[in-house]
Amino acid sequence: MSLMKTLAKVAVGVAMAKGAKVLMDKNRSGGTTGAGGGLQDMLGGLLGGAGGASTGGVSGGLGGLLNQLGGSGSGSSGGGLGGLLGGLAGAAGVGGLLAGAGAAAKKRPASNDHDFGAVLNSQFESTPEPEIEPSQEQEAAAGLMLAAMIQAAKSDGTFDESEKTKLLDQLGDVDAEEAAFVQAQLQAPVDVAALVRETPNGMEGQIYAMSLLGIDLDTQQEAKYLHELAQGFGMKPAQVNEIHAQMGVPSLYT
Hints:
Elements: H1 3-17, H2 39-48, H3 61-70, H4 84-90, H5 99-105, H6 116-123, H7 136-153, H8 161-171, H9 176-187, H10 192-198, H11 204-213, H12 220-233, H13 237-246
Helix pairs in contact: 1-6, 1-7, 1-8, 3-6, 3-11, 4-5, 5-7, 7-11, 10-12, 11-12
């Protein structure tokens, strides 16, 4: 297992725990999801098979969106990952917990020939493409995205034990290290400022999108959390609303 695989599982688990109904359209040809197709379509497309993972490119789905938001450099996360791996291994990290992500990342190959989106899409269990082993930087980025998604899911103060159980059940057979990492993130305090500090330049849009994945956006607390995150990243309202449109959720700004 890996944090990248765990990220794929948590992406589905958080969506289920927060009430999103994942579409399991296994007959979708290519899995391409257009802008405004909706979060349900995006996740459903991934679970039904996202095209292009075997060649290092992504035609749609969550991985495709993340590549668009952060670039799609071969063998990297597609974002500004310079120093991320060392920072995760040596710094306290969000809530003092992300150092574990750096340690896990060190077990992975230094590089590969695939972009982050292709690797992520290959981790969904219903995709036909062979699973791609993430690189060290991709694994570190997956850890940061995991922290962002879980923190966002807790931002409205209602992520209770029942929802935590649903998420953990979704993980299935993960190793002790990954399970401990997720448990630690579930127990960590919500800290927007820390997440902003830990996000490398170029990954702001990706981390915002993964945060949005964990939110229903039906409470003032969630809207406030997203606003604070966007402000911390220096994102303009138009940029934020565009990500919301791509994910098929209501705009944050009018």
